[in-house]
Write a structure and sequence with these properties.
alpha+beta; 4-stranded antiparallel beta sheet; 3-stranded antiparallel beta sheet
Length: 174
């Protein structure tokens, strides 16, 4: 495969990138916990010794009239450090909306685990790539924040609502 020249291939650089992403994800999850008015360290405790993944995806050519299949991440959140050109999110109205990132921007999307924990108040983002043709337009760097496999995934918010999902171990969701 003819990879773009600017891809990081040094393992030490990837390890440092992972550590930074892991610390950053914990901060984001604390803020989500605070916003939901739940115990602020609930989410960071859930991901301690978790199976979070840093992934670099190089998409194959996707023609305009044949978009990729829709994706929902099995994670609490996913941090998108770079997204391919023609990245699209599904809006609540059911329309595909194109999203792009500037050089110093990131995108944080909610995953199916966060959706379960919040009883669908924070729904899992659904995305796709509508087309990818040029080599440098096909790179996607993501960090999936995934709880420890033995973590119990249970609805905690809102506290007074009947759960939409059964309580389940995180390992059953992958």
């Amino acid at each position: 495969i003819d990879y773009p020249e600017n891809l990081i291939t040094d393992p030490i650089t990837f390890q440092n990138y992972y550590k930074i992403a892991d610390s950053f994800s914990s901060l984001i999850l604390r803020k989500i916990g605070r916003g939901l008015q739940i115990q602020e360290d609930y989410f960071p405790n859930l991901i301690e010794r978790g199976y979070s993944k840093l992934k670099l995806t190089f998409y194959s050519i996707i023609k305009k009239n044949n978009p990729s299949k829709e994706i929902q991440d099995t994670s609490l959140i996913t941090i998108h450090f770079s997204i391919p050109k023609n990245f699209q999110l599904l809006t609540p109205e059911g329309n595909w909306e194109s999203v792009s990132l500037e050089k110093d921007e990131i995108l944080v999307s909610s995953g199916t685990i966060l959706s379960r924990v919040t009883n669908n108040k924070l729904k899992a983002a659904e995305y796709r790539i509508s087309s990818c043709i040029k080599k440098n337009d096909r790179i996607h760097i993501l960090f999936y924040i995934i709880p420890h496999p033995n973590s119990q995934i249970t609805k905690i918010y809102p506290p007074t609502e009947r759960p939409l999902f059964k309580s389940i171990k995180a390992s059953s969701l992958n």
